[in-house]
């Protein structure tokens, strides 16, 4: 244990030891991974724990496939995940989103678990995980539970994680990659080196020139990262010829008012965030429609 005048710092050798410390000290201590967000909160007085439990680095694989799921360690760094071959092959949309988090220095120490537990509405990893239908594994000494990412966020800086639980893994059903197309957009004044003004993750599966499956999720457009279900519903089962049309775009513009409710803040106005998501969706429709043209020319 290392001490400073304000906070005690614990260095457990294993995840089990970390959870035992948390059970012993309860709400007075906090888990810390990379600490990139927690340090800022400590400086502002938002968090005032008497102790920090440094989570040990993951000792096993970063990402692996087991029992029909892509399983991802929540305790390894973002840089390790971005460079992992299995993750890149299985869930390329998540890899792209993770590569847009912060600067290289931030990605070198921050963890996926920390990115999610921080529960920022503009979280870059969350929309991609929502697009994949991911779940999180929450562990205690007594056992664990699995919670869909869609139910994990409770509000800005709030989650459904219990005080004695630790997010250790992310589970994603192995995607059907045939006909899959993915897109990720992040908007902000300095690209990846800033918290997103808005972001959008899109996963579309095309079969026989029709949209057979579609998921869209966005951040910084509601109190929590959210699916755009109304837009999904209008795109589902549509032929590629129907996507990039004036009528489709007009309908999507109307439906977006039901799916998103951004606020104006230091990262952008309500109008800007709404327009950014709208234009990104239109770009996706144009790219998907082009597939039809390419197929006819082949």
Helix-strand blueprint:
Elements: E1 2-3, E2 8-10, H1 15-25, E3 29-32, H2 38-44, E4 51-54, E5 63-66, E6 69-73, H3 78-82, H4 85-90, H5 92-98, H6 104-109, H7 112-117, H8 125-131, E7 135-139, E8 144-148, E9 153-155, E10 158-159, E11 166-173, E12 180-187, E13 198-207, E14 210-219, E15 226-227, H9 229-235, H10 246-259, H11 270-297
Parallel strand pairs: 2-4, 3-4
Antiparallel strand pairs: 1-2, 5-6, 6-11, 7-8, 7-11, 9-10, 12-13, 13-14, 14-15
Helix pairs in contact: 5-8, 9-10
Q: Work out the count of structural domains.
A: 3
Overall geometric form: globular
Strand percentage lies at 25-35%
How would you classify the helix and strand content by structural class?
alpha+beta
Order of helices and strands: EEHEHEEEHHHHHHEEEEEEEEEHHH
Number of DSSP strand runs:
15
* Major beta sheet, strand line-up: 5-6-11-7-8
Helical residue percent?
A: 25-40%
What is the end-to-end distance? 66 Å
CATH topology of the largest domain: Enolase-like, domain 1
- With helices defined by DSSP (H or I, 4 residues minimum), what is the helix count? 11
Assigned CATH superfamily of the largest domain: CO dehydrogenase flavoprotein, C-terminal domain
Question: Your description of this structure?
Answer:
The model has no long low-confidence stretch (mean pLDDT 91). The protein folds into three domains: 2-54, 2-Layer Sandwich (Uridine Diphospho-n-acetylenolpyruvylglucosamine Reductase, domain 2), CATH 3.30.43.10; 63-173, Uridine Diphospho-n-acetylenolpyruvylglucosamine Reductase, domain 3, CATH 3.30.465.10; 180-297, CO dehydrogenase flavoprotein, C-terminal domain (Enolase-like, domain 1, 2-Layer Sandwich). The protein is α+β, with helices and mostly antiparallel strands and 298 residues long. It starts with a strand and ends with a helix. Strands 5-6-11-7-8 form a five-stranded antiparallel beta sheet. Strands 1-2-4-3 form a four-stranded mixed beta sheet, with helices on one face. The longest helix has 28 residues, at 270-297. The protein has helices spanning 15-25, 38-44, 78-82, 85-90, 92-98, 104-109, 112-117, 125-131, 229-235, 246-259, 270-297, and strands at residues 2-3, 8-10, 29-32, 51-54, 63-66, 69-73, 135-139, 144-148, 153-155, 158-159, 166-173, 180-187, 198-207, 210-219, 226-227.
